[in-house]
Recover the amino acids of this structure.
């Protein structure tokens, strides 16, 4: 189909203002009350049917055109991060220790812009459900919305989402069929000794020494326990234990993350982690308890949907290409892709001269890509729900 020129210039100034207002008032997962209210009010002003409280603080706007029973879902995330902002911007976070360091404020602005444009042009036949999701950052807001009947209450055959990507230049986009983001697991290992005087280590099992041995051995799992052709990351990120220089602690915690793309690899790593922990504990004479949590699955694009996402991007971006490899970061949009056909797109936002990565205290969303994001959402709707 031919794509009609997208005229959204009149939308941009108020969307930038709204984006920066959300940036200045960030809210953590499942606490996005102010943000949800702003979104709901904006959708009502456009004239959409609005549903609030979906999956906690989620909002869904419904726009219908024509008589088709086809449905499409477009999703943006709303939550901020528990990070202190150091940008010095005029619209910097006013909430200490909370910060839109991942650009979800920009995602909200783009999806609201798409809703407004589609509501005034209505060049589609069917229903578009605009999903504004809470709690993407590790709390599983997508899973909560699905449990609350998201796709039963708002039927859609396909679902799509994008994420701004600082590693790509502004005006470009990438996606790929199959895995695009990794599954994310968290492990916590508690090593229990008896504790005692550091001058008499022969009288107590040494939990610190066991932890040191454990960290070394855990870092062999990816190299020695999974096939060389598979991809995975295991990182130990926390070691906690001890309060005094002359006391052997009774307990040490070892915490970290595992990232994988295949269930078989994920299973192998968890099994190896448990086996190694058991062996280290036995050798050191300590007790060990492992808590292993698989909190996000891999984000896996349907091949046909990835092709559609890329075709839509090619209509509005100066360059759109297949990503050569997936990222080891994770995304709870994965839960939506487990129950509906769809795809996830990386939209470049890199500025000339560089910029800061996601989750960095100096990060800021690039407002120059709002029009591109609107265009991608609109083009998808008009292609997939062609009248």
């Amino acid at each position: 189909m031919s794509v009609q020129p997208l005229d959204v210039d009149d939308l941009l100034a108020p969307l930038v203002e709204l984006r920066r207002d959300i940036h200045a008032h960030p809210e953590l997962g499942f606490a996005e009350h102010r943000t949800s209210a702003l979104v709901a009010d904006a959708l009502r002003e456009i004239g959409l049917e609005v549903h609030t409280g979906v999956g906690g603080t989620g909002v869904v706007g419904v726009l219908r055109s024509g008589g088709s029973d086809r449905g499409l879902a477009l999703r943006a995330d709303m939550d901020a991060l528990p990070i202190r902002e150091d940008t010095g911007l005029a619209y910097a976070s006013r909430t200490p220790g909370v910060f839109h360091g991942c650009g979800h404020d920009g995602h909200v602005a783009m999806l609201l812009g798409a809703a407004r444009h589609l509501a005034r042009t209505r060049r589609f036949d069917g229903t578009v459900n605009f999903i504004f999701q809470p709690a993407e950052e590790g709390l599983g807001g997508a899973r909560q919305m699905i449990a609350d009947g998201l796709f039963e209450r708002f039927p859609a055959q396909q679902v799509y989402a994008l994420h701004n990507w600082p590693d790509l230049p502004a005006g470009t986009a990438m996606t790929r069929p199959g895995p695009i983001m990794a599954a994310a697991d968290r492990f916590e290992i508690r090593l229990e000794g008896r504790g005692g005087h550091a001058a008499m280590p022969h009288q107590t099992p040494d939990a610190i020494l066991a932890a040191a041995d454990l960290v070394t051995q855990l870092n062999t799992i990816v190299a020695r326990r999974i096939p060389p052709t598979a991809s995975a990351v295991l990182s130990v990120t926390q070691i906690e234990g001890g309060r005094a220089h002359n006391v052997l602690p009774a307990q040490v915690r070892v915490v970290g993350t595992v990232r994988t793309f295949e269930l078989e690899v994920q299973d192998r790593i968890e099994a190896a982690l448990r086996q190694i922990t058991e062996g280290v504990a036995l050798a050191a004479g300590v007790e060990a308890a492992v808590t292993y949590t698989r909190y996000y699955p891999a984000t896996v694009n349907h091949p046909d949907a990835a092709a559609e996402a890329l075709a839509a991007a090619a209509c509005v971006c100066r360059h759109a290409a297949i990503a050569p490899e997936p990222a080891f970061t994770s995304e709870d949009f994965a839960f939506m892709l487990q129950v509906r056909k769809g795809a996830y797109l990386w939209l470049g936002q890199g500025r000339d001269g560089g910029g800061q990565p996601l989750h960095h205290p100096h990060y800021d969303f690039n407002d120059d890509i709002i029009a591109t994001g609107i265009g991608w959402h609109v083009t998808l709707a008009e292609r997939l729900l062609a009248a």
Observations:
- The domain at 186-296 is CATH 3.30.70.360 (Alpha-Beta Plaits).
- The CA atoms of residues 13 and 120 lie 18 Å apart.
- The radius of gyration is 24 Å.
